[in-house]
User: Fold this.
Amino acid sequence: MSGGSFLRKKGVDLSVKIYLIDAMSAMALGLFASLLIGTIFATLGEKIGGSILADYSAGAAAAAFFTEIADFARGVTGAALGLAISHALKAPPLVLFSAAAVGAAGYALGGPVGSYVAAIVAAECGKLVSKETRVDILVTPAATLLVGVATAKFVGPGVSAVMTALGTLIMKAAELEPLWVGVIVSVLVGIALTLPISSAALCFMLNLGGIAAGAATAGCCAQMVGFAVMSFRENRWGGLVAQGLGTSMLQMGNIVKNPLIWIPPTLVSAVTGPVATVVFRLENIPAGAGMGTCGLVGPFGVAAATPGGPRMWLGLILVCFVLPAVLTPLVAAPLRRLGWIREGDLKLPE
Assistant:
């Protein structure tokens, strides 16, 4: 059997789509199911604990319980990433379950990038040896762990350092030049969110925080809320919810047919980004920067990271919801009159 035939037999597909789209998208789901949902519960616990509700036993108990949930959820982030990535690579059960430890090791030794790299290498190597011996129950998990932890130990920290350095550079640039960096980060991360790659995983791997993360959130919200409102006449309430709280990636098929429909939300992201960085100084955490309004994770992250007060809440509401909802249809209107955007161009598949 040739090498290519063996790889196909074992389900190993050495493709950009698998590693940069499928694996990163799955990584975002693992991130949401652990660190992100944990952060939401932590924020709820913090807000309840700091409010008048904490003066009542039920409020104090709820705050403590939410904080406890947050600690458990955030504590298994690495394992969740390893499982999610291995699942995307269609790893067999013994490889998949071993990937939890690999993901945890990668996260501890090399951060999110460590989990990503270690889980991919471990899953593919585990698939190669899976069911090739009579003692598969020992060989497969042992091989998966050996390769995965070795990768996490020797490769993860270096790759993580490069990504973190790049993220730090972006954050410092945003502090020095909040206007133009706000525009650039907002536009690029918003585009990444709509493309079939994971903006959430990208921001997480860059460890993007501060006002640069606020700009990233602004760009994502502009795409999601913008497409949701702009396409309301075609998709009605179902489309509004699916895109506004789900993902603007649903429009990718329509973008391929008519790329001009991408102009309004992208132009709006160039406005909301600097509004977030210059006017309101909105911040976010790395785990929430690339999520936008998906499950309201982006706004929750802004509320958790930005110093509180009426100014923060005003900025959050304007940048994440009001400005995209108002400006995107206004930008789209002349394009519709010119025939650049036609009736039905934004219709989602049934």
Q: What stands out?
A: The mean pLDDT is 90.
